[in-house]
Amino acid sequence: MERSGFTKELLIVIIVLGVFTITMLSTTSYAYKDNSDDYYEQVVNVIERQAELYGDTLDTLKREGNFVITVEELVKNGYYVADDEDGNVVDPRNSKHSLNGLKIKLTYKNNKVEAQVIEEE
């Protein structure tokens, strides 16, 4: 008689653990969602802010009003930290691509530098 009671209790515990596991998987599935596009936007925002700081040091920009630089130039001048020792900035959307050639347009207007990443299609 005791064996059947133990079997029923064990079955109930397994069912409860199964329900708990299914509930936890559904609530944590967002953690595994691909957020590379959001991260790319954050990287672009940081690059633009650093480009503005770099643009403040460029006399050419202040004379001409417009100037185009690349991410590679920001890395070489110490305004952005590369992802590897070769100086490459990795694209978070595709880790095989580099953002070093990404162009940034700097505009000097009203004693203020504005940076805009130029998205190439």
End-to-end C-alpha gap: 74 Å
**Order of helices and strands, N to C?**
HHHEHEE
Helix content: 40-55%
| Annotation, overall tally of beta strands | 3
How many helices does DSSP assign?
Answer: 4
Strand order of the largest sheet: 1-2-3
The chain-level mean pLDDT equals 85
Explain this structure:
With about 120 residues, the protein is an alpha+beta fold. The protein folds into two domains: about 1-35; about 35-120, no CATH class. It has helices spanning about 1-30, 35-55, 60-65, 70-75; strands spanning about 65-70, 105-110, 110-120. It has a three-stranded antiparallel β-sheet with strand order 1-2-3. A hairpin with a 2-residue loop joins β2 (about 105-110) and β3. The longest helix is centred in the N-terminal third of the chain and has 27 residues, at about 1-30. The mean pLDDT is about 85.
SSE blueprint:
Blueprint: H1 2-28, H2 36-55, H3 59-64, E1 66-70, H4 71-76, E2 103-109, E3 112-118
Antiparallel strand pairs: 1-2, 2-3
What is this structure, in a nutshell?
It contains 4 helices and 3 strands. By secondary structure, the chain is of the alpha+beta class.
Which labels suit this protein?
121 residues, 4 helices, alpha+beta
